[in-house]
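Protein 1 of 2
SEQ + STRUCT:
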Amino acid sequence: MATEEELDMHVRVTAPSVAFLPETETSKAVVHDLHHSDLLPVYGYVSHEYLMTGVAVAHSYCTRLLLRCPADPNKFAGLVIVEPSHLWGGTTMWRIIERWLMRSGHAWLEVDSQAPAAIDQIKNADPERYKEMHFIPCQTLQEFSNKISAFVKEEELWNDYRIFKERWWAATLQSPEILVATSHALRSGQMGIKAERVILTGLCQTADLIRKFIVESAHLRLPDGSAPFEGFMPCQSEGGNSLPDFRGAKIIEVLGEFEVNAIKIFYGKFGAERAPHRRADSRSFRLYEVSGMSHRETRYLSMTDKKRLSTVDLEGAQWSTFASSFVYHALFDAMNKWTTTGVAPPRGTTIDIDKFGEIERDEYGNALAGVRTVHTDVPTGKIIDFTPQPGPNWHIGTEMPFKDVKMWAVYKTVANYRRQAGEAVDRQIEAGFLLPEDAEVLRRDTIEQVSF
């Protein structure tokens, strides 16, 4: 129960108005990430667009919401995953969790709360359709793009990025209140479904946005005075100081091996006891670091991604088959259970780091400890959390597969490999980091495909 002093500090956001924005032959929703949108009819889902109008930071705004939910409202399970659109447009969590979300009857909502990106990436893409969209005036996305450092020198990276973020936050002041207003709109039934629980999530830059909300916007409340979100899931951010508990909400923070490596660049080398983002579990907080996880999953690529990445020279490696999405399915499922039944998810677990800040590795070069999977416990190659060639794809994971002679030296027979891999899958299920439905896919599409 909040104290009177805390109640006095609370700020109730203004209730927004939401209007359906229909599509016509000449006016369609602008969607930057079509990843697996073809699966919507397979699962009986629809995609609807809305404009939300209200007041935030004492100024009016109008922004776009993109909802994906069961076509039959009676099949809606009550949970909505809310994801702000990335500063460069589009979203990331949808492409990772859409299978789990749709087979479970949940809904997903993109909210274009970051002003420069929303104006340049959405409104300017179709000025007539989105003519009502507006925010507090700020710099354009193009102006920001022209001033972002190329990050050539590692020692300049963190300082440049910090300056960029400070400028970006100042340009999108209305975002926190817009996110809370979105939660109200979902709970009030203005979009055809009535949310019982709302989880706020994001990956990369939007994870930074969620982290900032947790630290700086705990005073914001729904119009009725209640907390806006049952849970927060900032995923694969660039780190920062450890997150505090958030009264009335659960927090699951997820980092991949890529981010654990990147944090050294941002904050300098650290031993395990000095990792700035790490903290102990609590009744409302978990931190998971996933060994082998890169910044972007390549197991399930869109056709656009396949075409774009087909020309990249991997220098003998191949795109990683690491199933990031399956780990996320389990963690989002755990968050749903945590916020409905109170059953806590698995204990937090982190990757082993030596006193020099380097990730400790096994004889094959794969990271030790952290969230374990069949990919790291029964490897068929060395998992690499980045792309060999520098450039725009450097944050995408690859792997160097073992040759047949290596597979024979490690496992002796295919049957022995499959036995060990099956046992690893069972351990991951028991530990709470893999759902049985996804385990069957791993067995069929990965384990049973191995031969040597």
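Protein 2 of 2
SEQ + STRUCT:
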Amino acid sequence: MFHSKVMHCTICLKHGAVGLSNSVLLQQLARISTSQGWNSKLPLTTQTTASVKSKNVQKDTRMWKETPAHDRKNNLGNYCMMLSKFRLSSLVVMTSMAGYALAPAPFNLTTFALCAVGTGLTSAAANSINQFHEVPFDAQMSRTKNRVLVKGLLEPVHAIGFATAAGTTGLGLLYFGVNPLTAALGATNLILYTSVYTPMKRISILNTWLGSVVGAIPPLMGWVGCTGALDPGAIVLGVILYSWQFPHFNALSWNLRPDYSRAGYRMMAVTDPALCRRVALRHTGVIVGTCLASSYFEVTNMWFALESLPLNLYFMYLAWQFHKKSDSSSSRKLFRFSLIHLPALMLLMLVNKKSWYSSKEQDTPKVQDVNKLPDSRISVLPRRPIVAAQEAESEI
């Protein structure tokens, strides 16, 4: 009986049974190998085959695309904006413009525009190189996994090319259009951000202090672009920007601790949370003291100290709440207010600027009355008639 069944299946395979597939034949062989299969009188085309036939399998009509998007050429400008971290570059340009406008020197619109554009291009170049170095680590973080280099929308060669073009153009504008000292500050900032700060993020928590130095240089660039020198007023702006970044970034990094830890970044929020909260609170106090001292250094008038005090005290209050509660809600409030605090503070400083004109004003010559001229100038007028009279007397 067994041999007859096997021969029947072999003949079906040889001549091709209608409606049978290899899987069905394997099922039939498995069925007849059991004890129940000997007594079964079912035909080879069973109900299982019928159910397979009746199942409607939908065809996959999705269009699969290559990882580098086909519209790269059409959206190259948008991708470069994302590569340069447009929001961060805009913040750098804003602080540079504030530094230029607050400087006690005549305002030159052309130099002002060149300084702003050069600073922005230098910042864009630094951000592009930074993303190029951090692609393996950005892929592990939820906040950065959708960046253009991580998703393959741009290749590394695009990042290097964009950084080279932006950095060369920006430094050239600062050197030839503004002054060499501003260009030197821009080059220093570019080197610090890409070659020191970025590698240090995976080595030591000192990266936050160094990153704050990088953020404090743009207002100095604006001030030097206007005056050509580093005055005490420029240091006031640098200290404000330096201290502002601690409550801003420490509050931001607090809710990103899992991401930073997964990627291996040495941040205060990960390695020493208590220090992270203390430093944020401490530097809000530094901002209060620096704003009160700005009138002493003749950057602003006394009204600025009074008008900025409520803004700075509320900033300090939010930092105190973050230090006390150390939860996600207090950190978000501190971070969001920091985005409002800096533009508002820069605007108040501009409104209450100490001097709107240069201290070295050039005296313009004024038209003087002829009647008020010195006698020496008047005496030369009748010389010619006197000489003529003397010659006439000598002839007589």
